[in-house]
Design a protein that fits this description.
single chain; Ferritin; 0% strand
């Protein structure tokens, strides 16, 4: 029996459901949190260190909200079923990151960004626009996004308190996943983005990460 073919309306309704679950429900990871094997004593942070870690993890959580929206926006308009499946797979793996960051923020006694709906809506539109440019451009956009996220995580690993091994383990696994997504996108034929487009992406990312630290 042939698999059901979903209409654009069906897929749009599915994306609305995904958006509501991403923003209003607690995500469930498919993989254990990377710090699960660390000793309980690892969590000893003073108030200043805890606040610094929480702000960094809030920024990462906001980034994962945006990643969900970007990739699902791209997948909605992808022409090649294989490309659509790859984008949805990347979004599913980013859902693990979203769950890990959210639970770590709660452990640190803080909250996620109040602007998460803004990050989601804006990123979904940007992702759909990238997808409409063609599948190779869309894959190149995915690869560029992941490269910028890697650089962003590297900076956060430098900024984390030295004894926050739990957050560090989470970010290191996230970085490894982003690297795999980038390689996969380029291996599938992703076209490198023009320099002005990559620079615009960095500017948008800087605005989001700066704002999410505080709001």
């Amino acid at each position: 029996m042939n698999p059901r073919s979903y209409s654009l309306l069906d897929r749009c309704l599915s994306e609305i459901d995904t958006a509501l679950r991403t923003l209003a429900a607690e995500p469930v990871a498919s993989r254990p949190r990377p710090d699960a094997q660390l000793d309980a004593e690892t969590d000893t942070l003073d108030a200043v260190a805890s606040e610094r870690s929480a702000r960094l993890m809030r920024v990462n959580h906001a980034g994962e909200v945006a990643a969900q929206a970007l990739y699902r926006g791209q997948a909605l308009v992808a022409r090649d079923p294989e490309v659509r499946e790859r984008l949805l797979q990347a979004a599913d793996e980013e859902l693990d990151h979203l769950a890990w960051c959210g639970s770590r923020i709660r452990e640190l006694g803080d909250r996620t960004s109040l602007l998460s709906p803004v990050w989601f809506a804006g990123s979904f539109v940007i992702g759909a626009a990238a997808g409409l440019s063609g599948d190779r451009t869309s894959l190149g956009f995915l690869a560029e996004t992941e490269q910028q996220v890697e650089q962003h995580i590297d900076r956060h690993l430098d900024e984390l308190p030295a004894n926050d091994r739990r957050s560090r383990a989470i970010l290191e696994q996230m970085r490894a996943d982003e690297q795999a997504h980038r390689r996969s996108a380029m291996n599938m034929g992703g076209r490198p983005l023009p320099s002005p487009a990559a620079a615009a992406m960095r500017l948008i990312s800087r605005v989001m990460t700066t704002t999410a630290r505080h709001v």
